[in-house]
Structures are given as C-alpha cells and as structure tokens.
Amino acid sequence: DAGRGPLAALAAWAWAAGSSSSAMGYAKGALEVLYNNPGIIIGMICTVALLMVLQRSGGIRAHRLALEQLHLATSRQIESLENELWRVERHSELLKKRLDWHEKTKASA
Length: 109
Known about the structure:
Radius of gyration: 35 Å
Structural class: mainly alpha
Strand content: under 5%
Number of strands: 0
Largest sheet: none
Order of helices and strands: HHHH
Number of helices: 4
C-alpha cells in the first residue's frame, strides 16, 4: 500500500466503501486514505493556514484596495494623455495653417 498513489488509494476506498453498507465502513475507508496519503492532510492544513493569515492581515482586502487605487491612477493618466494628444493635434493643425499661409505669401511675392 505504501507505493500506491492517492488515486489508487481512493479507488480502493471507494471499492471498500461500496462493499460495506455501514457508515463506519465509509469513515474507516476515508481515514485509511488519509493515513496512507499524508500529503492530503498537509495540503489541507497549509491551505487553511494561508487563508487564515490572509484574512487576519487583511491581505485580500489590501490587494483589492491597491488594485482599485491603481485603476484610478491609470484612468487619470489615460485621461491626461488623451488631453495632451488633443492639444498636440490642435497645435499641429495650427502649424500646418501657418505653413500654408507662409507658402502662399512666399508664392505671391
């Protein structure tokens, strides 16, 4: 049993639980799977510990607030760049008009 992976152990548990009609058989099979595969318990403990740490430190909330602030700052920067682009395009149009006027003046002289 030590060389079997978790899937083989789960299959054996399912077979054992199916052959036993009592709830005790299911519990015994589940405990056997967990005993033979301590990685399952370690993974569950690590997941619960990580969630508790994040919840206590306000990690998830802090990350959401940071993302909101980043979104607002990015939106302001995009608006600023759009305004700057409009200003540069307008300035370019005025320079083209000046150039046309100078070329007409130069051609008529």
